[in-house]
Amino acid sequence: SGGAANIKYPYYEVQNFVGKRVTFTAYVKTDTTDAARLCVMEVSKEKIPIPDGWQAGGDPIVTKEDKVAHDGTYALKLSGSQGGQANVNYPYIKTKDLSGKGITFTGYIKTDISNAGRLRIMEVSKNGGVTETYSGFHSGNGNWEKLEVSKTLDSSIKTLVFTILNNAGSTEEFVYADTMECSIKDLLFNGDFEKWSKFAEREEHTEVYSDFHSGSGNWEKLEVSKSIGRFPSMLILTIFNFNASPEDFIYVDEAQLVKE
After folding, report:
1. Average pLDDT over all residues of the chain
2. Kind of pairing, strands 174-182 and 102-110?
3. Is a pLDDT exceeding 80 seen at residue 193?
4. Which residue pairs from 202-206 have beta carbons closer than 8 angstroms and sit at least 24 positions apart in sequence?
5. Is the pTM of this model over 0.90?
6. What pLDDT digit, counting tens, does each position of 174-184 carry?
Protein backbone atom coordinates (compact mmCIF):
# COMPACT_ATOMS: atom_id res chain seq x y z
CA SER A 1 0.00 0.00 0.00
CA GLY A 2 3.02 2.32 0.38
CA GLY A 3 3.73 2.12 -3.34
CA ALA A 4 7.42 1.21 -2.98
CA ALA A 5 7.60 -2.55 -2.42
CA ASN A 6 11.05 -3.92 -3.09
CA ILE A 7 13.44 -6.79 -2.65
CA LYS A 8 17.11 -6.09 -1.94
CA TYR A 9 20.31 -8.04 -2.42
CA PRO A 10 23.35 -6.74 -0.47
CA TYR A 11 26.63 -7.50 -2.23
CA TYR A 12 29.79 -7.23 -0.11
CA GLU A 13 32.57 -8.60 -2.34
CA VAL A 14 33.23 -5.25 -3.99
CA GLN A 15 36.98 -4.66 -3.76
CA ASN A 16 37.53 -5.96 -7.30
CA PHE A 17 34.98 -3.40 -8.54
CA VAL A 18 37.04 -0.32 -7.61
CA GLY A 19 37.16 1.99 -10.61
CA LYS A 20 35.12 -0.47 -12.70
CA ARG A 21 31.67 -0.29 -14.23
CA VAL A 22 29.01 -2.80 -13.15
CA THR A 23 25.66 -3.58 -14.76
CA PHE A 24 22.63 -5.03 -12.98
CA THR A 25 20.14 -6.72 -15.33
CA ALA A 26 16.90 -8.65 -14.90
CA TYR A 27 13.96 -9.80 -16.97
CA VAL A 28 10.75 -8.25 -15.69
CA LYS A 29 7.11 -8.77 -16.63
CA THR A 30 4.17 -6.53 -15.67
CA ASP A 31 1.12 -4.95 -17.28
CA THR A 32 1.40 -1.74 -15.26
CA THR A 33 3.36 1.34 -16.40
CA ASP A 34 5.77 3.14 -14.07
CA ALA A 35 5.78 0.17 -11.72
CA ALA A 36 8.91 -1.95 -12.13
CA ARG A 37 12.51 -0.79 -12.20
CA LEU A 38 15.98 -1.71 -10.91
CA CYS A 39 18.44 0.19 -8.74
CA VAL A 40 22.11 -0.08 -7.84
CA MET A 41 23.17 1.66 -4.63
CA GLU A 42 26.86 2.03 -3.80
CA VAL A 43 27.77 2.43 -0.15
CA SER A 44 31.24 3.90 0.24
CA LYS A 45 33.30 4.47 3.38
CA GLU A 46 36.17 6.87 2.94
CA LYS A 47 38.74 7.82 5.54
CA ILE A 48 39.08 11.60 5.51
CA PRO A 49 41.78 13.64 7.26
CA ILE A 50 40.70 15.60 10.33
CA PRO A 51 42.79 18.31 12.00
CA ASP A 52 43.99 17.32 15.47
CA GLY A 53 41.50 18.19 18.21
CA TRP A 54 38.59 18.67 15.79
CA GLN A 55 35.68 16.41 14.78
CA ALA A 56 33.51 16.27 11.66
CA GLY A 57 29.72 16.48 11.78
CA GLY A 58 26.84 16.65 9.30
CA ASP A 59 28.52 14.41 6.70
CA PRO A 60 31.04 16.86 5.15
CA ILE A 61 34.12 16.31 3.03
CA VAL A 62 37.08 17.77 4.93
CA THR A 63 40.30 18.61 3.10
CA LYS A 64 43.76 19.71 4.23
CA GLU A 65 44.12 22.82 2.06
CA ASP A 66 47.58 24.16 1.17
CA LYS A 67 46.77 26.63 -1.64
CA VAL A 68 44.55 29.28 0.01
CA ALA A 69 45.70 29.41 3.64
CA HIS A 70 45.05 32.67 5.46
CA ASP A 71 48.09 32.18 7.67
CA GLY A 72 50.74 29.47 7.94
CA THR A 73 50.89 26.46 5.63
CA TYR A 74 47.41 24.94 5.82
CA ALA A 75 43.76 25.90 6.04
CA LEU A 76 40.68 23.73 6.42
CA LYS A 77 38.42 23.16 3.39
CA LEU A 78 34.89 22.17 4.37
CA SER A 79 32.27 21.03 1.87
CA GLY A 80 28.55 21.43 2.24
CA SER A 81 26.30 18.39 2.56
CA GLN A 82 22.85 17.29 1.49
CA GLY A 83 21.41 18.12 4.90
CA GLY A 84 22.95 21.60 4.92
CA GLN A 85 24.53 21.06 8.35
CA ALA A 86 28.16 20.25 7.48
CA ASN A 87 30.57 21.27 10.23
CA VAL A 88 33.79 20.69 12.07
CA ASN A 89 33.70 21.16 15.81
CA TYR A 90 36.13 21.43 18.67
CA PRO A 91 34.77 20.08 22.00
CA TYR A 92 36.25 21.28 25.29
CA ILE A 93 35.29 19.44 28.48
CA LYS A 94 37.60 20.96 31.13
CA THR A 95 35.06 23.67 31.92
CA LYS A 96 35.27 23.78 35.73
CA ASP A 97 36.85 27.27 35.79
CA LEU A 98 34.73 28.74 32.97
CA SER A 99 31.43 29.27 34.78
CA GLY A 100 30.09 32.79 34.26
CA LYS A 101 32.96 33.91 32.05
CA GLY A 102 32.60 35.81 28.80
CA ILE A 103 34.12 34.14 25.77
CA THR A 104 34.72 35.14 22.14
CA PHE A 105 35.41 32.73 19.29
CA THR A 106 36.95 34.29 16.15
CA GLY A 107 38.24 32.98 12.87
CA TYR A 108 38.84 33.75 9.21
CA ILE A 109 36.41 32.33 6.65
CA LYS A 110 36.62 32.39 2.85
CA THR A 111 33.80 31.39 0.49
CA ASP A 112 31.97 32.62 -2.59
CA ILE A 113 28.62 31.34 -1.30
CA SER A 114 26.34 33.62 0.71
CA ASN A 115 24.60 32.34 3.85
CA ALA A 116 26.97 29.36 4.10
CA GLY A 117 29.99 29.97 6.33
CA ARG A 118 29.71 31.02 9.96
CA LEU A 119 30.88 30.18 13.49
CA ARG A 120 29.03 28.85 16.52
CA ILE A 121 29.57 28.48 20.25
CA MET A 122 27.53 25.64 21.73
CA GLU A 123 27.21 25.20 25.48
CA VAL A 124 25.97 21.96 27.06
CA SER A 125 24.88 22.27 30.69
CA LYS A 126 25.09 19.64 33.40
CA ASN A 127 21.35 18.94 33.10
CA GLY A 128 21.68 18.29 29.36
CA GLY A 129 20.38 21.64 28.15
CA VAL A 130 21.95 23.09 24.99
CA THR A 131 22.34 26.74 24.00
CA GLU A 132 23.80 27.88 20.68
CA THR A 133 25.14 31.30 19.72
CA TYR A 134 26.10 32.16 16.13
CA SER A 135 28.24 34.67 14.30
CA GLY A 136 26.90 36.40 11.23
CA PHE A 137 27.38 34.69 7.88
CA HIS A 138 30.32 35.33 5.62
CA SER A 139 29.20 37.70 2.85
CA GLY A 140 30.07 35.24 0.07
CA ASN A 141 32.40 37.70 -1.69
CA GLY A 142 35.18 35.11 -2.12
CA ASN A 143 37.64 36.87 0.22
CA TRP A 144 38.88 36.11 3.71
CA GLU A 145 36.63 37.72 6.33
CA LYS A 146 37.04 37.66 10.09
CA LEU A 147 33.94 36.36 11.88
CA GLU A 148 33.32 36.34 15.61
CA VAL A 149 30.76 35.18 18.12
CA SER A 150 30.62 35.98 21.84
CA LYS A 151 28.81 34.44 24.78
CA THR A 152 28.66 34.56 28.58
CA LEU A 153 28.92 31.00 29.83
CA ASP A 154 26.40 29.58 32.28
CA SER A 155 27.30 28.59 35.82
CA SER A 156 26.27 24.97 35.12
CA ILE A 157 28.38 24.48 31.99
CA LYS A 158 29.57 20.92 31.31
CA THR A 159 30.90 21.03 27.72
CA LEU A 160 31.88 23.84 25.39
CA VAL A 161 31.95 23.27 21.61
CA PHE A 162 33.43 25.60 18.99
CA THR A 163 32.01 24.96 15.51
CA ILE A 164 32.73 26.02 11.92
CA LEU A 165 29.65 25.59 9.73
CA ASN A 166 28.99 25.25 6.03
CA ASN A 167 25.23 25.51 5.49
CA ALA A 168 25.46 24.90 1.73
CA GLY A 169 23.45 21.94 0.48
CA SER A 170 26.05 20.48 -1.91
CA THR A 171 29.39 18.71 -1.49
CA GLU A 172 30.61 20.89 -4.39
CA GLU A 173 30.17 24.13 -2.39
CA PHE A 174 33.07 24.94 -0.07
CA VAL A 175 34.00 27.05 2.93
CA TYR A 176 37.65 27.63 3.87
CA ALA A 177 38.61 28.30 7.48
CA ASP A 178 41.83 29.36 9.18
CA THR A 179 43.28 31.18 12.20
CA MET A 180 40.58 30.14 14.70
CA GLU A 181 41.14 31.72 18.11
CA CYS A 182 39.47 31.94 21.51
CA SER A 183 39.63 34.93 23.85
CA ILE A 184 40.51 32.63 26.78
CA LYS A 185 44.11 31.52 26.49
CA ASP A 186 44.97 27.85 25.87
CA LEU A 187 41.33 26.84 25.37
CA LEU A 188 41.51 26.20 21.61
CA PHE A 189 44.30 24.02 20.22
CA ASN A 190 45.24 23.76 16.54
CA GLY A 191 43.03 26.62 15.43
CA ASP A 192 45.57 27.33 12.69
CA PHE A 193 45.03 23.80 11.26
CA GLU A 194 48.73 23.02 11.01
CA LYS A 195 48.48 19.57 12.65
CA TRP A 196 46.68 16.75 10.76
CA SER A 197 47.36 13.30 12.20
CA LYS A 198 43.76 12.04 12.67
CA PHE A 199 41.23 10.44 10.33
CA ALA A 200 37.46 10.04 10.37
CA GLU A 201 35.24 7.72 8.34
CA ARG A 202 32.67 9.23 6.00
CA GLU A 203 29.87 7.07 4.61
CA GLU A 204 28.14 8.02 1.37
CA HIS A 205 25.27 6.43 -0.59
CA THR A 206 24.88 6.95 -4.36
CA GLU A 207 22.04 5.45 -6.39
CA VAL A 208 21.30 4.91 -10.09
CA TYR A 209 18.06 3.55 -11.55
CA SER A 210 17.00 1.73 -14.68
CA ASP A 211 14.13 2.87 -16.85
CA PHE A 212 10.69 1.58 -15.91
CA HIS A 213 9.18 -1.48 -17.56
CA SER A 214 6.80 -0.30 -20.27
CA GLY A 215 3.81 -2.13 -18.79
CA SER A 216 3.33 -4.17 -21.98
CA GLY A 217 2.60 -7.38 -20.12
CA ASN A 218 5.60 -9.03 -21.78
CA TRP A 219 9.02 -9.97 -20.47
CA GLU A 220 11.44 -7.05 -20.91
CA LYS A 221 15.11 -6.86 -20.00
CA LEU A 222 15.85 -3.97 -17.66
CA GLU A 223 19.37 -2.82 -16.88
CA VAL A 224 21.19 -0.19 -14.92
CA SER A 225 24.94 0.54 -14.89
CA LYS A 226 27.14 2.32 -12.39
CA SER A 227 30.81 3.30 -12.20
CA ILE A 228 32.21 2.30 -8.81
CA GLY A 229 34.30 4.73 -6.81
CA ARG A 230 37.52 4.32 -4.86
CA PHE A 231 36.13 3.27 -1.48
CA PRO A 232 33.14 0.94 -1.91
CA SER A 233 32.07 -1.09 1.11
CA MET A 234 29.01 -2.73 -0.45
CA LEU A 235 26.47 -2.62 -3.27
CA ILE A 236 22.73 -2.98 -2.75
CA LEU A 237 20.81 -4.32 -5.74
CA THR A 238 17.10 -3.54 -5.58
CA ILE A 239 14.06 -4.52 -7.61
CA PHE A 240 11.15 -2.12 -7.10
CA ASN A 241 7.42 -2.54 -7.50
CA PHE A 242 5.84 0.91 -7.25
CA ASN A 243 2.27 -0.37 -7.53
CA ALA A 244 0.13 0.87 -4.64
CA SER A 245 -2.04 -2.24 -4.45
CA PRO A 246 -0.96 -5.67 -3.13
CA GLU A 247 -2.97 -7.13 -6.01
CA ASP A 248 -0.69 -5.60 -8.65
CA PHE A 249 2.28 -7.84 -9.28
CA ILE A 250 5.58 -7.80 -11.14
CA TYR A 251 7.46 -10.93 -12.15
CA VAL A 252 11.27 -11.13 -12.17
CA ASP A 253 13.72 -13.69 -13.54
CA GLU A 254 17.41 -14.06 -14.46
CA ALA A 255 18.68 -11.16 -12.32
CA GLN A 256 22.46 -10.80 -12.44
CA LEU A 257 25.33 -8.42 -11.80
CA VAL A 258 28.14 -8.15 -14.34
CA LYS A 259 31.48 -6.33 -14.08
CA GLU A 260 32.54 -4.73 -17.35
Report:
1. 93
2. antiparallel
3. yes
4. 202/45, 202/46, 202/47, 202/48, 202/56, 202/59, 202/60, 202/61, 203/43, 203/44, 203/45, 203/59, 203/233, 204/43, 204/44, 204/46, 204/59, 205/41, 205/42, 205/43, 205/44, 206/41, 206/42, 206/44
5. no
6. 999 999 999 99
